[in-house]
Amino acid sequence: MINVLYTSIDEDNHQKLVDNYLPKFSVEFQTKIKRYRRWQDAQLSLLGRILLVKGLEQMNCSFDESNLRYTSFNKPYLESNDINFNISHSGELVVCALTKIVDIGIDIEKIESIKISDFKSQMTNNEWMLISESKDTKLSFFDYWTQKEAVIKAHGNGLSIPLKSFEIKNNKTTIDSENFFLKKIFVKDDYSCSLALKKSLDTIEITINRINF
Q1: C-alpha separations of 11 from 14, 39, 84 in Å
Q2: H or E segment at 153?
Q3: What is the mean pLDDT of the chain?
Q4: Per-residue pLDDT tens digits for 156-187
Q5: Exposed/middle/buried for 164, CB within 10 Å: 0-12, 13-18, 19+?
Q6: Are 155 and 127 in contact (CB under 8 A)?
Q7: d(CA 9, CA 45)
Q8: Which SS3 state, helix, strand or coil, does residue 96 take?
Q9: Separation between Cα atoms, residue 164 and residue 176, nearest integer Å
Q10: What domains can you pick out in the chain, each with its CATH number?
């Protein structure tokens, strides 16, 4: 089972979130949040941590910040815990995916008007051809982009893996003899969101829950 939680930022709710939730975390995390100049960035980061806590609670597991670790590639994980998680945010949305199955990656991007040709070097020739020939070029591009980002997050080595070094085909790709399976999930119009897992997603139950504050 995969549990996906998401929420959106809200300026009117910012101080309430800071007052009610920030003191529950470490001084180090509190300092990080307070350093942000924009309330949007501060709230996105804070909500990511809150969604992790609530996601763990839904899986009958409590959050212990002392167990939070980071790999050499800066991927967060929980020591002595069999729950894998990943967090992403873009625009006004934050998502958190949790599972006990294997390493997971999630990526969300707001679909905006950008110069897509600037990103041609990040796609394989086949991927770029399919994007170019798509009826909705912008949507196709963002779908591929979130898939690739989700894969490298599930892999764990982050941007040390060039996006062009692997090809997404039929919701699947391979890196260093490891297979990764992908699934597009709907969260909100004008956003693209993808899950990546080192196991076929065809028979895995996925729950998607909006969290309101």
Answers
A1: 5, 7, 30
A2: helix 137-155
A3: 95
A4: 988 789 999 999 999 999 998 999 999 999 99
A5: middle
A6: no
A7: 10
A8: strand
A9: 14
A10: 2-210 (3.90.470.20)
Q: Please say whether the beta carbons of 122 and 164 come within 8 A.
A: yes
For residue 130, give both structure tokens.
């399919």
Gap between the Cα atoms of 49 and 161, Å rounded: 26
Residues in the chain: 213
> What type of residue is 145?
W
pLDDT tens sequence across 101-150? 999 999 999 999 999 999 999 999 999 999 999 999 999 999 999 999 99
Q: Is 197 exposed, middle or buried (0-12, 13-18, 19+ CB in 10 A)?
A: buried
Does the predicted model carry a pTM greater than 0.85? Answer: yes
Q: How far is CA 80 from CA 63, 66, 68, in A?
A: 12, 11, 10
- The rounded distance, in Å, linking the Cα atoms of 131 and 116 is 10
Q: Token pair of 191, please?
A: 């956003």
**Amino acid in the structure at residue 165:** S
**Residues near 181 by Cβ (< 8 Å), separated by ≥ 6?**
171, 172, 196, 197, 198, 199, 200, 201, 202
